[in-house]
Amino acid sequence: MSAREEILARVRKAVAGAGDVEIPRHYRADRQGGDLVELFAERVDDYRAIVHVVPAAEVPGKIDECLGERRMIVPDGFGREGGWHDVNTADGVVTNCAVAIAETGTIVLDHGPGQGTRAQTLVPDYHLCVVRADQIVPGVPEAVARLDPARPLTWISGPSATSDIELNRVEGVHGPRTLEVIIST
Amino acid sequence: MSATFLGMPGSFPENSREAVQNSQLRFNLRKATHTIRDKRASVVGELPDWQELRAAGKAIKDHTLRNLDRYLIQLEAAVTEAGGTVHWARDAAEANRIVTDLVKATGETEVVKVKSMATQEIELNQALAEHGITAYETDLAELIVQLGDDFPSHILVPAIHRNRSEIREIFLDKMPHVSADLTDDPPALTEAARLHLRERFLRSKVAISGANFMVAETGTLVVLESEGNGRMCLTLPETLISVVGIEKLLPSWRDLEVFLQLLPRSSTGERMNPYTSMWTGAVEGQEFHLVLLDNGRTDVLADEVGRQALRCIRCSACLNVCPVYERAGGHAYGSVYPGPIGAILTPQLRGMSSELDASLPFASSLCGACYEACPVAIDIPEVLVDLRAKAPHAAAEKAGMKVAGWILNDHERLARAQRAATRVRKLVPKRLPGPLSAWTDTRDLPEIPEESFRDWWERNERA
């Protein structure tokens, strides 16, 4: 018998006669409204990321200000010309996102247009992410509902960090050590 | 890691006797577990629906386990459809052989690894080393353990037993290019780890990971982490091999909405961990292999009481609240799964034929703090008690229990035994002799009264 057949047979034997289980879903989901921009900004700031809340018209200027002289990767579809191409020598990357979560201060990239590849948003030490106010959802259930599992997804909550030394969060291991977020309202 | 857990001698009481004498270890553990406990309580308290999430998490896992065959087949189809290759491994040896062959086929002799309990459980690094393949751990704590030639002592933070100055010593000793003026400041230590691993990430062609979750409906794998080492390993190499226990399955995409709330808050005490990666099949040109691991899990599944241990999402909240773990530390458990969850998982996965494994169900005061903290409501005390009954017992204890059972089963016999005991009460020693001394080593014998309650009652009723 193949390993596959044997494991499946063992599973069937192990649970034979056991009753099935109903799944109660009485937790919060499908929430609407509330000041999500303020909550999201506060929660991102809690991770010691840098947050700016800016009216949509002023976003391009704010991006220029943040980028300064950095050699930045500008992914296809971001809507800006130029940019650096080699991830290993770039100083940073600027992207959009797919969804953002207010309650947890999380940005989710699905690496679609304007969001770069997974490597582009990982190797450079600085990540500037532009989040539109209408992309912010209240909590995790609302975000999961909006995402496409067929795409690779990267959930980002603050800069790279570790809790491995005496269980205190310290920023800065292998991912971008600086995360800056512009919320476009 | 050259050290190996399998075949570790001793028993939990022997191992912990040494550990509790180590004041540095006790200090490190106390500080770390209390830090994380407070953080966890605060972020769990923020969610008004924590108990509802916990109930859903428990039910989703139980439903999955009940229908595990169906969901495994569905997962296999979805991963294959998305360009991945699925392998099945009955035990550790088979899983190690599959992974070794896959690495050999790439022609590489070095692999980078994402922290993974499953690959520790099967001792993959040692198996690869036997075939000339070097596995580099990239998680900071795993790196500390690997460089220190040490054992992991915690599920989430394998180097929890080390403080910052001990970590500095290990880095100075084992990292080739580290500067002698490295301080023990945690940011300086993480910077040293970053520089140490950077080149390796960019160079490696093969990565090995585990996964926190697999979604049957979509074939998606999910890895939660903090440092970005996981993202490096999952993203940059040309070949990715994931070794995942068959119980890590979730039926539907939607189920992630429950577990992505339960796990970060329970484990690191954060609203969300810094990075979570999700991928479905072969992504961005990468070759992807999934190795589904049984290794004793179907035996656990067959036990009606013990099977709830398979709900575990490896958050380690039970370790951080356990008074026994806090004092004994993780090494005393002699397994990659220490603490309360280890005390029920290890003896079920490995059986109780060794002295160590048979002693694990007794490594608890049954205070129940683990059950309270568990995000999927595993009743650890219930399983511990069940395993204690199944554990091998000394012949003297078994005989004693048999006699006690015979007497207690009949009120006339009990009354006669009580009267006999009161007559010889002055002669009963404080500690029992011979093989019975095992009982009184850790317990006081009860004082025998001058008269039993039954006799007293009878005398006063008559009066």
Automatic annotation (TrEMBL), chain A:
<feature type="domain" description="LUD">
    <location>
        <begin position="87"/>
        <end position="183"/>
    </location>
</feature>
<dbReference type="InterPro" id="IPR003741">
    <property type="entry name" value="LUD_dom"/>
</dbReference>
<dbReference type="InterPro" id="IPR037171">
    <property type="entry name" value="NagB/RpiA_transferase-like"/>
</dbReference>
<dbReference type="Pfam" id="PF02589">
    <property type="entry name" value="LUD_dom"/>
</dbReference>
<protein>
    <submittedName>
        <fullName>L-lactate dehydrogenase complex protein LldG</fullName>
    </submittedName>
</protein>
<dbReference type="InterPro" id="IPR024185">
    <property type="entry name" value="FTHF_cligase-like_sf"/>
</dbReference>
From TrEMBL, chain B:
<dbReference type="InterPro" id="IPR017900">
    <property type="entry name" value="4Fe4S_Fe_S_CS"/>
</dbReference>
<keyword id="KW-0249">Electron transport</keyword>
<dbReference type="Pfam" id="PF02589">
    <property type="entry name" value="LUD_dom"/>
</dbReference>
<feature type="domain" description="Lactate utilization protein B C-terminal">
    <location>
        <begin position="389"/>
        <end position="460"/>
    </location>
</feature>
<dbReference type="InterPro" id="IPR037171">
    <property type="entry name" value="NagB/RpiA_transferase-like"/>
</dbReference>
<keyword id="KW-0411">Iron-sulfur</keyword>
<dbReference type="InterPro" id="IPR009051">
    <property type="entry name" value="Helical_ferredxn"/>
</dbReference>
<keyword id="KW-0004">4Fe-4S</keyword>
<dbReference type="Pfam" id="PF11870">
    <property type="entry name" value="LutB_C"/>
</dbReference>
<feature type="domain" description="LUD">
    <location>
        <begin position="74"/>
        <end position="282"/>
    </location>
</feature>
<dbReference type="Pfam" id="PF13183">
    <property type="entry name" value="Fer4_8"/>
</dbReference>
<feature type="domain" description="4Fe-4S ferredoxin-type">
    <location>
        <begin position="309"/>
        <end position="378"/>
    </location>
</feature>
<keyword id="KW-0408">Iron</keyword>
<dbReference type="GO" id="GO:0046872">
    <property type="term" value="F:metal ion binding"/>
</dbReference>
<keyword id="KW-0677">Repeat</keyword>
<dbReference type="InterPro" id="IPR004452">
    <property type="entry name" value="LutB/LldF"/>
</dbReference>
<dbReference type="InterPro" id="IPR003741">
    <property type="entry name" value="LUD_dom"/>
</dbReference>
<dbReference type="GO" id="GO:0006089">
    <property type="term" value="P:lactate metabolic process"/>
</dbReference>
<keyword id="KW-0813">Transport</keyword>
<protein>
    <submittedName>
        <fullName>L-lactate dehydrogenase complex protein LldF</fullName>
    </submittedName>
</protein>
<keyword id="KW-0479">Metal-binding</keyword>
<dbReference type="InterPro" id="IPR017896">
    <property type="entry name" value="4Fe4S_Fe-S-bd"/>
</dbReference>
